[in-house]
Request: fold
Amino acid sequence: MKAGLFTALIALTFAVFSVADAYGMDGSDLHMEIFGANVISSDMDGAPTPLDGRAITAIQSGQTKGSGSPSLFSTSFLDAVDFGNPPPGCTPALPFGAAIGGNLILTYRDGSLLSLEAGPGSFYCTDGLNFTVEWGGDVVGGNRRFEDAAGSWEGSAQTFPGGRFTGELSVDLE
Reply:
């Protein structure tokens, strides 16, 4: 009897710690917290110049935790500030911003990749130092267990002093 209970306990432990990485093409929702580093550059000698109206590149990389968590992710977005017409979601505290376009790649422990592309309605707001992002779009594929993946995703993120950021991400696979 003790051997049976011990075996059941080991199986339950394995299931609890393996399920988060076992999500895939079965239509399950993936809900993750993202956190990592944020780097912003522009075409002006590589100096961050988000408030001069120039296009900037924002690159984030880090880790996730939650259901369907991969071990690593990376993003790259190209955008420019629109002083005359910031997105409706911007506030007086973060009065400038623009639509964004780009991609987010989730890299799983087993080597699977899931590719997400920002779509219409994705934007950021800034005061020139702090940023918030509201983004979403389409799942545009992947490899291994995400081969031919499709669906949609949405999320939000914010930056902190020192180049750090956190956010949330939800993916709905078809």
User: Anything to note?
Assistant: Strands lie at 29-42, 55-66, 72-80, 96-99, 101-107, 113-118, 123-126, 131-142, 151-160, 164-173. Residues 123 and 162 are 22 Å apart (CA to CA).
